[in-house]
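FAQ
Q: What does a multi-component entry look like?
A: The components come first, one per line:
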Amino acid sequence: MKKQIFAVLSSAAIISSLLAGCGGNSSQSGASSSASSSASASSEGSKQIKEFTAFFDRQGSELNQDNEIQQIIAEKIGAKCKETWLTGQTAEEAVGMYIASGEYPDFMNWTPQLQEAGALVAIDEYLDKYPNIKNFWSESQWNSLRQADGHIYSIPQFGKINIKAMDTQQNGEAFWIQTRVLKWANYPKVESLDQLFDLLEKYYAANPTMPDGSSVIPFEILAYDWYYFCLENPPQFLDGYPNNGRCIVDPKTYLVSDYNITPTAKRYFKKLNEEYKKGIIDPEFMTMNHDQFLEKIASGRVLCMVEQHWDFATAEDSIKSQKLEGCTYVPLGITIEPGMKEMYYVSGESATLSGGLSITKSCKDVEGALKFVNDLLDPEIVTLRSWGVEGKDYLVDENGLFYRTDEMRENAVNADYKASHLCSYSYFPNYGGMNPDGKNAATPDTQPSEFFNGLRPEVQECLTAYGAKTYVEMLDNNVIDGKDQPWYPMWSFVGTMTSETPGGLAWTKMEETKKQYLPQVVVANDFEKEWSTYLEAYKKCKPEDFFAEVQEAVYNRIKLVWGKDVRPKS
Amino acid sequence: MSSAESVSIKKRKKFKLSDFLYSLVIGIILTIFVIVTIYPLLNTLAVSFNDAMDALRGGIYLWPRKWTLQNYITVLRKESMVTGLYISVLRTVVGTVLQLSVTALIAFVISRKNFVFAKPIALLYTLTMYVNGGLIPSFLLNKALGFTNSFWVYIIPGLVSAFNMLVIRTYMNGLPDSLEESAMIDGAGYFTVFVKIYVPLCKPVFATIALFIAVGQWNSWFDTMLYNRMASNLTTLQYELMKLLSSVSQLSGDPNKSASAVTSAQVTTTSVRAAATILTCLPIVALYPFLQRYFVTGLTIGGVKE
Amino acid sequence: MEAKKTKKQSINIASGAITWKAIKKQKELVLLSIPFVAYVLLFCYVPLLGWIMAFQNYKPGLGFLHSKFIGLDKFKFLFVDNPDFLRVIRNTLAMGVINLVLSFAFAIAFALILNEVVHKAPKKFVQTVSYLPHFLSMIIVCGILQDVLSIDHGIVNEILVKLHVLKEPINFLTYKSLFWWIVGFTNVWKETGWNSIIYIAAITAINPDLYDSAAIDGAGRFRKMWHITLPGIKPTIFILLLINIGNVLNAGFEIQYLLTNGMVQSVSQTIDIYVLKFGISQCDYSLGTAAGIFKSVVSIILIFLANSAAKAAGEERLF
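Then the predicted structure of the entire assembly, as tokens:
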């Protein structure tokens, strides 16, 4: 017994001595890391490299410490940034903790809470010194970022279209259909909801199973958690409006309206209800989670769905790697009646911007931080961030066009390679459209030649049948100039609402109600009854509060850009 | 599995049908139980060894369809996993030793039935299970005490858990009071009684609580994220894995925001998640059979008699 | 029990009364407990100052000192303005009670049954297997559960259809009447082995002489289990029961969040989920704190009631 106690004690002693060492270490490193959080200089050879820190309230993957391109960039511009991402908390919680503690990393994503807490540094007075940043957005776009105090606190990272839009893939929402269905019907014109389901029913009747015997799912709806937009927002597209996200804005009268209660919405859900009863819609669409959804897509069994492409891109990759013939998807711009104009694909820069990259009060070297951002927009660095290293990640042909070999394409999607080699600094300002050289696309997947070589023959055949060369050309091409529709897109406003205002509270309740009732509407035995129950519950959320605030925001944005008040005189 | 048989082999003076049936029923119940509880683990194991792209299709039950080690490589190749492992082991060992010692001592003190402050202290601790000031106040407190970028934030704030303390106290209450009394008559102080008499007798409950603490320490990552996010030499294995796994969100999101950041999103598939789960389970699961030897009936009282 | 008490009192001064004399006599114990009291006050009670948030419109940027006081508005929001919240409390309570009953019944039964296995190897094997699901994350467990219950060739449906219990596969997760039980049994599935560890340890403290004398009296194995093992772990059962009665409002968050869907939303939402939606994801910390205070008050009332009941019944109690 004594021996054992002695053993325990001595091991505890060993551990505590170990700890003493460790504790010392940690307090030291703590000190150095808090210093380095504001650009301490770590001597890297003869050159001084500033090291910044950043936290982004989004999911993302951290780079390895010895990431190659990060190191190359650091040597060229004399600075680097350690990025950290959201882990296991909601974005609001994570940001709230930073605010409560009063200590921040050098860079953060702008949020209204940070602004309100006075955590951010105004950058407008520095802008003239940093031409790359200054020229990234236009004067009026910068002005739209001014806060109540007249200062600018953020640099929006996304949405910049350099020279012209180069989109090849419809990243956003559409009705996606497998090419085999279209091929089977000899590539018909599919424009309206009725035509689409008619086609699906006929194909399903003729081909109820996959080659391996499993059953085909003609139409899938993802209704899980926040992905339920696949169920709730198609009515706005069906009426030919673009994705403002939470409402319809009439471009002539500037009036906001509610797509949830339009006749089209009712027709759409009635159609879904009918198709559900016919067995065309997956019977477990309302209970499946996101993983199960991806599983079903990846198995090639799903003929058609409404989705945003980025959300099922991985499942589509799986279909490709399994070589399931005809099971990848092309977008269809479905409307409620045939022959309508649709606006699923929209390009153009917004005139009013919000959010973006901010520098915090904890940053001890604001000018250094801005110089870092400025340098990241240098043509050479931009290419490094988006394409990688020449010869290793891409090659250049005699016309100066970039291209990649198959191996390079595979590397670019390999998680290990990404962490150890590629460094996109994705939450720092990014060019869309074209590379600064004016020849190449901003990113490899929007390079036209790159894109076409990556397509499978059956997709090429399908696109050609519809006279398209890219996925985007399957849809109507819409450009929304921010100057004409300064409010677009309204979701960037709704994202900043909180339950503190009546409208924000109404919005939270509307979402809850829709999540609860819409699946019930789709599966209802008595559609009319269920629909009116839903409408009743929906009205109790006071949607008018929400739309009043959105309407106000539309007027404000118009005033900001056009300089005139378009509110109806009352 | 074969428990029914093995139980029936047990030497009995005469064969009793009722005893045999009894064993049979127990054997059947436990067999069903084992099948039901081992399934999720075997399933996770199978998925972890399956090709990630292929696993996305689903339909994997007990055996991988397309074998690969790639998921494990993806998880382990992260350089930060090595420091993470070191810190995780360290906090588990140190945390378990310190927390168990302190918890046992306080349990001992308030299990002295005649101790006048026993009840108030028990109440004070009991209530901690039901009240808490929330995340922000605790965070501010720990920050004010200098527990950011520090190893000790893993140990000190959670040093005593009321639950563990009450479990140990209950066990100690069950021991005969005569033990303490006779020692006290011999002139021993409370501390001596604790170390010499109670510690050896409480081995089963200490093993239990040590397991609880060790598992808690090993699995926790939230404190790392809150306090040591920026101190890369103090992050734990679980936190590193959390980072890897939370590249795909379960909590909240906005379709439009995500769309704009699509280039940065790394896809963590179910297979990688499964591999990470298996890797973190293994060390701590291996601890259990080691502790099980303390769960032997008769050890306690037998010890007293000697 | 009775005998013990009287013996104790005869040796020591009367317990209970806090007198200077008693304190002096127990100097060693008092000194030993001072650091523990200081510790718990600092780490568990000082943060309670944060409860002030519930009465403020708390902004992290302003802190506790400068945030605006709004009185009972947040409580009013929960209990008066939102009829939904009462339904949420009902859901939480229902799932809390179901979890409590199921997890106790299964863990105790499992520990008792396992104790009946005489051979070491199968016993260790079963025990080790039983506690493995505890280490799987809820995401994984719920993912497997959804596959198992799937209408699309899920194993439960296949079996029930084969046994002619069901005519055709059904989608279990859309039935409001089943949801609470699905949550309860999922917890049983995940935690029974883990929860039983405490009982298995408690069984070791039972004096083996008792079994021997019972055997002499001709008791069978079931009677020994019923009359010796079960009473032997009674104090542990009672303590855990008391602790967990205070926790019925913490019926969980993750499992309901992962398994819910529109069809069952009205029975699946718990207080924690509600607070996440209307509080934390709206940067409203005050609301979460107000709900937390409500839960604490209910818990404390419950454990005081339960503790007095235990006292009256002469059973093991918390304080």
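Q: Is there any commentary attached?
A: Sometimes. For this entry: The CA atoms of residues 248 and 268 of chain B lie 6 Å apart.
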